Amino acid sequence: MSAVPDIIEAEVLEIDGSPAPPPPQPRQSAQSRAEDAWRSMRGRVVTFDRRWWPLWVLLGIVAVVLLAVVACFVAVFVVVAKVIGGVLRILTGGGPARTGAALSRRSF
């Protein structure tokens, strides 16, 4: 028995009287394909799709909750800083806390 090659290559010149299909065009690079995709989306990105409104509502709620959490952390930090500052002022003998009321009522 003779050995049969694993791969057989042949060039098709004609099938049933019709010419062979044109050779495939070289593929574009990934960057040029991405640019073409953005160019095709240019007119459609302006408005939101109505089908996605639940997602936008959910994302809005998440954003508001995150903003509230950050605001709470900032408020807690300010309160703790004021308490620590007051305790240090008392321990070092810096006097009572300055409220700023004396600045608004000047005595001449």
Automatic annotation (TrEMBL):
Entry keywords, A to Z: Membrane, Transmembrane, Transmembrane helix
The organism's place on the tree of life at top rank: Bacteria
Annotated region described as Disordered, given as residue ranges: 15-35
Ranges annotated as spanning the membrane: 55-81
Designated name of the protein: Uncharacterized protein
